[in-house]
């Protein structure tokens, strides 16, 4: 519901709206972005206090960009958006109005200029005083993959490391983290994500790596991580040695010619998505080798992006790892491929209830 629609309520309709309980009105405000929710405070004295009673907040820097904004987004537009976001954070976390406990804050921001030093102390104090319980944090970078070089990625990592070092309370409250265009070649990524962020449950990485196509080995037996998603991350390999609570793993786009993934102690893993447009140099791998230590996989998606199959042929070896599979999705298969190989996958999965197949057709 937009502000102009709320303002158009007159007479009896307006009285009915004002007579609603706070719970109902807060439920309405929870369905609009933070800028619209805040603007409702000027409607009347009845609405004046309501935005500051919201227990769950989403503050996204892109909601503060001018509309329409240019693409790519220019520096002055990002600066203006961060100035408005900083005011919103101060309003909800750093004023006498902000006495209500916030059970969850979803925050997306740019690490530009001096704004991290404005937002950081406000977050830290809210966490230390118990006002803020859970934080979902996304550091957004507008650079396209093709325009992002090693120097840019190292600089972004430096900003993130500096932010967490300056405001360590943020890591203690962090339940979800999203990073774009980050190279951790000079920093201990494992220590940051698993030793410091002890409450982290969801991790989303886009165009992130360890430098020089290095492998990333995750051994975190005490981690609470349940969701791990990687997009266009230039890793030599992802080796998940021990993540006991991991439930969902998605890897979209890898570069290594052999098996990109190794799974060991992942007893809770039920959902796996592997998505890749393989090059002619990609030799492929046996799926059973990757999944041999998984025991509870229920949902498997393999997407080939209309290119070559990156699976090596096999048969009965898959029966054990497919034993509990309930949903099998095969997406973006090149239309001219012989589809008989799919029968082998189905025969190895006797418990499949949903079989989802999509064929990729090139449009000229």
From TrEMBL:
Matches recorded under Gene3D superfamilies: Ribonuclease Inhibitor
Domain of life where this protein originates: Eukaryota
Pfam families from the UniProt entry: LRR_At1g61320_AtMIF1 (PF23622)
Domain At1g61320/AtMIF1 LRR: 170-360
SUPFAM superfamilies in the cross-refs: F-box domain (SSF81383), RNI-like (SSF52047)
Alphabetized InterPro entries for the sequence: F-box-like_dom_sf, LRR_At1g61320_AtMIF1, LRR_dom_sf
Coiled-coil intervals: none
Descriptive protein name: At1g61320/AtMIF1 LRR domain-containing protein
């Amino acid at each position: 519901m937009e502000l102009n629609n709320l303002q158009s309520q007159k007479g009896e309709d307006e009285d009915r709206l004002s007579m609603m309980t706070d719970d109902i009105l807060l439920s309405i405000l929870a369905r609009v972005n933070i800028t619209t929710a805040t603007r409702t405070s000027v409607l009347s004295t009845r609405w004046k206090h309501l935005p500051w009673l919201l227990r769950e907040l989403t503050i996204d820097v892109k909601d503060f960009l001018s509309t329409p904004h240019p693409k790519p987004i220019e520096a002055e537009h990002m600066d203006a958006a961060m100035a408005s976001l900083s005011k919103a954070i101060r309003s909800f976390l750093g004023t006498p109005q902000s006495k209500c406990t916030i059970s969850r804050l979803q925050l997306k921001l740019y690490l530009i200029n001096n704004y991290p030093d404005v937002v950081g102390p406000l977050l830290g104090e809210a966490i230390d005083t118990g006002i803020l319980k859970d934080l979902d944090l996304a550091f957004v970078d507008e650079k396209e993959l093709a325009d992002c070089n090693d120097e840019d990625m190292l600089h972004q990592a430096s900003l993130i490391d500096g932010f967490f070092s300056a405001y360590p309370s943020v890591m203690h409250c962090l339940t979800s983290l999203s990073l774009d265009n980050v190279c951790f070649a000079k920093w201990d990524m494992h220590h940051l994500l698993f030793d410091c962020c002890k409450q982290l449950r969801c991790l989303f990485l886009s165009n992130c790596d360890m430098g020089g196509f290095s492998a990333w080995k995750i051994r975190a037996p005490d981690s609470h991580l349940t969701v791990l998603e990687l997009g266009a991350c230039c890793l030599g390999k992802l080796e998940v040695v021990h993540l006991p609570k991991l439930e969902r793993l998605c890897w979209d786009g890898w570069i290594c010619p052999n098996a990109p993934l190794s799974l060991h102690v992942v007893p809770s893993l039920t959902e796996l998505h592997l998505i890749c447009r393989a090059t002619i140099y990609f030799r492929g791998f046996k799926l059973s080798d990757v999944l041999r230590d998984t025991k509870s996989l229920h949902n498997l998606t393999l997407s080939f992006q209309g290119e070559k199959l990156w699976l090596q042929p096999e048969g009965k070896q898959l029966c054990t790892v497919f034993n509990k599979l309930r949903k099998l999705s095969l997406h973006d298969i090149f239309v001219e491929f012989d589809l008989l190989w799919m029968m082998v996958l189905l025969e190895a999965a006797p418990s499949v209830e949903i079989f989802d197949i999509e064929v990729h057709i090139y449009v000229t």
